[in-house]
Amino acid sequence: MLARGGVGPDAARPLVARHRPRYGCAMTRPSSTSDHVRAILALGLPLIGSHLAQMSLHVTDTVMLGWYGVTELASVVLGASIFFITFILGAGFAQAVMPMVAEALGRGDEAQVRRDTRMGLWLSIGFGAATYPVFWWSGALLLALRQDPEVAALAQDYLRVAGLGMIPALLVMVLKSTFSALGRTQIVLWATLAAVAVNAVLNWALIFGKWGAPELGVTGAALASVAAQTMSLLALALYAAVQPALCRFHLFQRFWRPDWPALARVFALGWPIGLTGLAEGSIFQAAALMMGWLGTVPLAAHGIALEITALAFMVHVGISNAATIRTGHADGAGDPRGLRDGARVAIGLSLAVCFVIVTLFLTVPQQIIALFLDLSQPESAEIIAFGTILLALAALFQVADAMQVMALGLLRGLRDTRVPMALATISYWLVGIPTSYLLAFPLGLGGPGLWLGLVIGLTLAGALLMIRFWLRAPRPPVHSGPNILGG
């Protein structure tokens, strides 16, 4: 079976022994706090950089369209929200690949790496094709949700083009998950940075009509994003095909050939991840829609504040991804002590980041928001004032937001996704969204009330998910040696 899987003439050698030297920190077992910190940062820093760069694609759109016009900015806030809520749902299959590949490496089954990756790609293509009609008819959807007709029409223009990038964006996510589980996070970072550069240059040309290009406004921003996503996909696919440590896995070998058991496993693990992301993302999407009822200026301020908090959140996502990989390796290798100690270190790193972010949100909010605006426009002062209030509220939920994403990452490393999905759904849909509406409209708090609802939903999710992880994490034998971190 191994030879047929294409692993080569050294298949008779122990697989774990062949893997560990090749993947460095991703496959070792740290024995001290500093070892855990180094291992998590070695994986996490490039992933953080990649997530920040990926987010920068859309921050670039927001900044440049903020310079272009407030109505255009508001339309892309809505359009990007719909794109990302759909993307988050489909990305569950890509995110399922990461712990599955990590666990397969932990037990030394490299043929399964190819199978899981291939079926993740299959599911992503199917999802992207099935959801494009949502983007094509998004204008009617937004009008039904009581959005301004001009904003809804521009958002539909944006989504009809941007929706073409759903399939390449999801395929990039699958490859990133596989590369990350294999410890190849540097290429993920560099490919994403290149995409940011391409997106920025094309945005400047196509939004504003520079260098002889047509002035396309929101459509130009969408075209730039699709081009950047496609470029990232081609770069990562080429790397997988030619890089010696990766081409041995033959990730695209007989791509047309189904592997039904692997597809079923990726689907079973991935759909709860997608719905969990949808539950979390929907609370922000619902806030965006309800903010649209308050007017264009509050919606624009919400979009900017959300971009800023999302950039901060990407740091936690990178640490969480590293924790998923480390947890999957430790679980596959039967190392409960390393699993629990690594979790404590990852949580501690995320809390340290929270301290820095809260400090920035409370001390320099106006300066941060001003980066997204043309200050000569008359609405800018009002947007900055409203956005400053929202960033102060965002500071309240930083710890809760960090803890919920850390717990989700750790639980995914244990391949535990269904109960976390239920806990997230309760926290966001049954508590967060209704509370946001109640505070904003019946109680008259407006935009700040919407964000207070976010604080309550995220706090509940963070508490429930952390309790779930520590109840589920395997415990080491009583006499397995000293606990480096206590507890």
Secondary-structure blueprint:
Blueprint: H1 15-22, H2 33-68, H3 70-107, H4 111-136, H5 138-144, H6 149-162, H7 166-181, H8 185-208, H9 218-242, H10 244-247, H11 260-294, H12 296-332, H13 336-363, H14 365-370, H15 380-396, H16 398-413, H17 418-440, H18 446-472
Helix pairs in contact: 2-3, 2-8, 2-9, 2-12, 2-13, 3-4, 3-6, 3-7, 3-11, 3-12, 4-7, 4-11, 5-6, 6-9, 7-9, 8-9, 11-12, 11-17, 11-18, 12-13, 12-15, 12-16, 13-15, 13-16, 15-18, 16-18, 17-18
What do these coordinates show?
This is Multidrug-efflux transporter. Its main location: membrane. It is found in: Cell inner membrane. It is globular and about 65 Å long. It has one domain (31-472). By secondary structure, the protein is mostly helical. It has helices at residues 15-22, 33-68, 70-107, 111-136, 138-144, 149-162, 166-181, 185-208, 218-242, 244-247, 260-294, 296-332, 336-363, 365-370, 380-396, 398-413, 418-440, 446-472. It starts with 14 loop residues before the first helix and ends in a 15-residue tail after the last helix.
Outline of this structure?
This is Multidrug-efflux transporter. It is found in: Cell inner membrane. This protein is an all-alpha fold and 487 residues long.
Features:
487 residues, mainly alpha, MdtK-like, MATE_fam
Order of helices and strands: HHHHHHHHHHHHHHHHHH
Helix share of residues? Answer: over 70%
Mean pLDDT: 81
Give the radius of gyration: 22 Å
Query: What would you call the structural class?
Result: mainly alpha
Alpha-carbon distance between the termini?
43 Å
Please, how many domains?
A: 1
Sketch the major β-sheet: none
Strand content: under 5%
Low-confidence stretches: 1-28, 483-487
Shape: globular
Tell me the number of strands: 0
Q: DSSP helix count? A: 18
Task: Name the quaternary structure.
Answer: single chain
